[in-house]
Amino acid sequence: MKIRTDFVTNSSSSSFSLARKLELTEKQKEAIIQFVERTMFGEDILTEKAEVDRFMEENYLSEEYKDTICKALDEGKYIYHGVVDFEEGDYGLAELYCELWKAIEEADSENFTGIDTDLSY
């Protein structure tokens, strides 16, 4: 926990401290990839052209995206859809940092340690 003893302002930044080896390990890289996939690539998965209209309607996508979606499916790609909530402002970004550090530390605590990772103020 951080304790401020000096003048406190309505700051838009927060500091942190980490301990890690210079190079990312394979475990850390995998943790980063898994975190990004889980949190930044969306959840709804579309794999079949027959479901394109339903997918677009459920996710409020306009007709202008239909050709691009169909082409991507033809190329063997999966379609993901997610939402980024900007209502929380910088707190969402702070949470993103904290969750990433947590994922890396859980994957490889021998080579990565969060020290002062409280970004809540």
What does this structure look like?
With 121 residues, this protein is an alpha+beta fold. It has a domain of 65 residues. The protein has 4 helices and 4 strands. A two-stranded antiparallel ribbon has the order 1-4. It has a two-stranded antiparallel sheet with strand order 2-3. The protein is elongated, with a radius of gyration of 20 Å.
Query: Which stretches of 5+ consecutive residues score pLDDT under 50?
Result: none
Give the helices and strands as they follow along the chain.
EHEHHEHE
| Order of adjacent strands in the largest pleated sheet | 1-4
Radius of gyration based on Cα positions: 20 Å
Distance between the termini: 11 Å
Number of DSSP-assigned strands:
4
Structural class: alpha+beta
Q: How is the main sheet built?
A: 2 strands, antiparallel
Mean pLDDT: 83
Q: What is the helix content?
A: 40-55%
What are the SSEs and their pairings?
Elements lengths: L16 E4 L5 H15 L3 E3 L5 H7 L7 H9 L4 E3 L8 H18 L4 E5 L5
Antiparallel strand pairs: 1-4, 2-3
Helix pairs in contact: 1-4
